[in-house]
Amino acid sequence: MQNEGKLLNEGSTVENTAFAPVVEETAESEYVIEMRHITKIFPGIRANDDITIELKRGEIHALLGENGAGKSTLMSVLFGTYQPDEGEILYNGKPVKINSPNDATALGIGMVHQHFKLVECFTVLENIILGAEDQKFDVVLKKNARKKVSELSEKYGLYVDLDARIDEITVGMQQRTEILKMLYRDNDILIFDEPTAVLTPQEIEELMAIMRNLSKEGKSILFITHKLNEIMAVADRCSVLRKGKYIGTVDIKDTNKEELSNMMVGRNVKFVVDKEPSKPSDVVFKVENLTVAGKHKKDAVKDVSLTVRAGEIVCIAGIDGNGQTEFVQAITGLEKIKSGKVELLGQDVTHKSIRYRNTNGMSHIPEDRHKHGLVLDFTLEQNMVLQRYFEPEFQKHGFIEFKAIRKYSDKLTEKFDVRSGQGAQTVARSMSGGNQQKAIVARELDREHKLLVAFQPTRGLDVGAIEYIHEQIVADRDGGAGVLLVSLELDEVMNLSDRILVMYEGEIVGEFDPKNTTVQELGLYMAGAKRNDEALKAEAEND
Q: How many domains does the structure of the chain reveal?
């Protein structure tokens, strides 16, 4: 089964044929969607190179590949966001021309994008019905829409406050909003682009169950992901892309994680982090009785104290929305502190600026790479020196040394395998999410620092990139830095940490040695079912 579809790639390119988007349904075709010989070229890069993918009716078909392999581009071609330079798309066995997302919607194709397409100042309900409003005399009939959305929410377990504004809800809830948008439009072909990148382990399990139910109802799903466990758990078949080319399609029942990872990156990948026992030394970071106000009356972070020593990786684990975001934003200077104290290398930085922290030993890989990690309309090289352009290496007498910046950017992109169409001059917005993440990780690890604050550092990365980033974080630890890791991925928590702190409702409720605990035990603390105040009190007294 590995070479399924290869024969379709060996003929001459088929010319596009223009058809109306709505096509008569035929029961004869085994495939509801066929993308034949698709090629898409951007300046400096062939994103899709003669790719053929076939989607069966009612199946969950995973699309696997490294960051920048062309997965999202291929799905954007199917959804009408991009037009192919070569190739054709068949719907129920007949060629169609999909000129826009509206054409895709008319064919019953819906897509949840990796980076959500939501209006932040609108409510959840307004976002779901936007563009598909039921109107009478130019008045939107929200009552009917609310009823339909509520029924869908109940049916698929996608509970979310329909009256909450998008900028007031977690990324997990925003993900649910995007899925409800598709279901509201009665789409039968559902494209999920990295749907679990922003979800907690519990939410991922729920989404997997939802996808299975959708498949049983006859909906066909294309599922882009880097997570091999998810593919093995939920997919029927998997097609693999590498550097824009089609590698093969396999039945999940006939394969394993090792084979898939080898197909994806062209080599064997280690799934366990190799690291020596930590040798912690001096305290490089200390938080005392930190409290951070929430968006409403309730405090988001409540009286949290912790230390990070040089030579150790301390991980804060927890279900998303339990104060991790506010905690990290407070210690990095992005959020105001209500009370408490933050020390970096023995200095009180509680009220210091972000730049002061950046230039005095702190590196920060942020949770939201778009809001806090990159200036999306800047080039890659400009983003690489956002916190360093004023240093002597990159400026002379107040004038930017562009050659030095280009050389530095090229060095980092080569070292961390950051792929982009136009190299250092690529606009960050045009890069894939995974390569945007790798650019941030490269910049923050390369800067002079004694503390690395890393919030979901491998979010959206493929297994090969995750392996490399984990190695770099361990090397950072072994080089004498302290690492404060915040992760929602329990595999990452267990593999990378030297100490684990569990945060629940803004409080640290337990501390664990990863060698002496289990994922199940951590889960109980993350859910608030257990807490270990005695151990935390004893540690505080020792500090």
A: 4
